[in-house]
Specification:
2 domains, Rossmann fold, two-stranded antiparallel sheet, 6-stranded parallel sheet, 40% helix, metal-binding
Length: 280
């Protein structure tokens, strides 16, 4: 892919003034904090359909296609509109009733998903807790910006990262903005609320639509691929990692090196600065 190449621990995308930290570090949730999509959200959608007597099953491949649509309610609405010969939209014609049904399904799905989170069956992705801890120790504000339901995201932060992190990690999620990713609204809202310059923010994403949202907001975007996004086009990303694990210690260096100037999106690769955010 032109302008982007895999990076080892000592090779990363970088810019000038490498000693400055970002003004804020913003994370997507699903696929970044936890690889939730295949074995979390998809399973919960299917169980919600089953409990409501709906003959729909989203298999792994189909759900991968549906992920191109940001937001669970939006995803269901698009899918049901594409299958008007089946319930629930076969017999429900009124737009307001369709919207209410989708909202009800989504509330049920969220409850089922949070049960999975509480069970501890979906661990944090490698390196996530460490990177967030380093950012907090360095005084860098951290937040989550997600199209998922706010309750679900807050539960993930509280259960998986702990109460101390949850107390300082802002959550911007769900319907808090009128348009979802790839629209930049969620990231621009976070910048306003945190009172930081979007050009000095670093976003960690795992999907093409997340990348588009971050770049449209004028932010630096680091990609950590997830199970559903291995083959997506990440042209324009400032760096691409397979994970945030210890084999990618350069991730923290990347955050420092990209925060000093507005991101260009050209993906030019040079050597990393030597110091990480801050060792704990």
């Amino acid at each position: 892919m032109p302008g982007i190449r895999p990076v080892a621990a000592r090779c990363i995308v970088a810019k000038a003034q490498q000693q400055q930290l970002p003004e804020a570090l913003l994370f997507d949730c699903d696929g970044v904090l936890v690889d939730t999509e295949r074995d979390g959200h998809r399973v919960s959608f299917n169980e919600a359909f089953k409990r409501k007597g709906l003959d729909h099953v989203w298999d792994v491949d189909l759900y991968g296609e549906l992920l191109e649509i940001g937001g669970g309610k939006e995803r269901m609405t698009k899918y049901f509109n594409d299958h008007l010969d089946k319930e629930p939209f076969k017999s429900i014609k009124d737009p307001a009733q369709r919207k209410a049904l989708v909202q009800d399904l989504h509330l049920l799905k969220t409850d089922l998903f949070m049960d999975l989170v509480d069970s501890g069956s979906m661990p944090l992705r490698p390196g996530v807790a460490r990177l967030i801890g380093e950012a907090i120790s360095a005084g860098v504000p951290v937040a989550v910006c997600s199209t998922s339901n706010e309750r679900a995201v807050s539960t993930i932060v509280r259960v998986m990262l702990g109460s101390e992190v949850a107390a300082v990690m802002r959550v911007f999620a769900g319907d808090v903005v009128p348009k979802k990713k790839p629209d930049p609204a969620i990231y621009l809202l976070a910048a306003r609320e945190l009172r930081v310059d979007p050009a000095r923010c670093v976003v960690v994403e795992d999907s093409r639509i997340g990348l588009q949202a971050a770049k449209a907001a004028g932010m630096t975007c680091i990609i950590t691929k997830s199970s559903y996004t291995q083959d997506e086009d990440f042209s324009g990303a400032d760096a691409v990692f397979p994970s945030l694990g210890r084999d990618s210690d350069a991730t923290a260096n990347t955050l420092r090196s990209h925060s000093a100037a507005p991101p260009s999106g050209d993906g030019a690769a040079v050597k990393t600065p030597r110091r990480a955010l801050r060792s704990r």
